[in-house]
Amino acid sequence: MIQPAPRHERVSVPGLWNTVAKTPWAPVLHDYETFLTSIRQLATPTVRNYMNDLTAFMTFLSNNNRIDTITSPNRRQLRSYLAWLAAHRYEKTSISRKLTALRTFFGWMQETGRIDKNDTDLISAPRQPRKLPYVVSETEIERLLATPDTTKTLGIRDRTLLELIYASGIRVSEANSIDTTDVDMKSREIRVFGKGSKQRIVLLGTSAANWLNQYLSQSRPKLATRQSVDALFLNNLGGRLSARSIQNIVKKHALAAGLDAEFHTHNLRHSFATHLLNGGADLRVVQDLLGHESPSTTQIYTHVSAEQARKVYLSAHPGTNLKRRNKTQDQRDAL
Fold first, then answer.
1. Catalytic annotation present for 275
2. Residues 6+ apart with CB under 8 A from 28
3. From the candidates 8, 171, 270, 275, which is the catalytic residue?
4. Is there a catalytic annotation at residue 81?
5. What is the pTM assigned to this prediction?
6. pLDDT tens string 232-263
7. pLDDT digits (tens, 9 = 90+) for 24-59
8. Is there a catalytic annotation at residue 252?
């Protein structure tokens, strides 16, 4: 059975240190980065996002000559910061994320005794418009999976990658970090490390398992070099396939399959969850497979299923389209 293996690595954000290197904030931010990486054991991309989000706030403080004193921002300063972000045309989702980063950072500072109070919780994030995730049909998924040229080494790799993401619903960062030692072909299980380096086991269906077996036996040995080590998905030079490369591969085949230009890797995850629910899967099961901590995060897929059901009903049921029904009746009367 697959055994747990915690992973984390240190992250540095040069732009951030250029902003605060000669201020009292520098050692505090170094300590905070260490806390996120070593104590909370967050994934590298998550730590990088936290630190990058703090860059915007440090830039704001620097522009307003308020970067030399380590204090918690008051309501007025926080409102000014949010207004500054809006003036620089940040999306509402980005503003909310940056506010969350501030809350976490200043909450940590208060807990560690660096500041006496924390007013970040007193500020509300901008209201977010509810957007349903873009989900494609099962027929479109089949068309997507069929696009790689599986007579070629990289084609088998691409087909396996597409099959695995759709079969398991994993994130691009999770697909990127899979090692061969994480794969258990007998039980059709793969160990992945999600947000916060939290481990979970995902499952493979027959098709994905067959393609993965073919990739491991035929394609990966041809791509592997000394630098490959245990990385599962390799590029044409034998290195670990990067998250950006995975996104580009999915985008390339999505366009070849005639899917929307906005289709990207996460839409495979959305489609995985929605198709499971449409097939009768329990919401809690889907939550566990996706690695969501809260069922409210998974709940949006029930809305997607309901919206899809509504579209099917409106397009298929004769009683929902009076014009079509009346036209049909007129045609009958004419006979």
1. no
2. 70, 109, 114
3. 171
4. no
5. 0.57
6. 999 999 999 999 999 999 999 999 999 988 88
7. 777 888 888 889 888 888 888 888 888 888 877 877
8. no
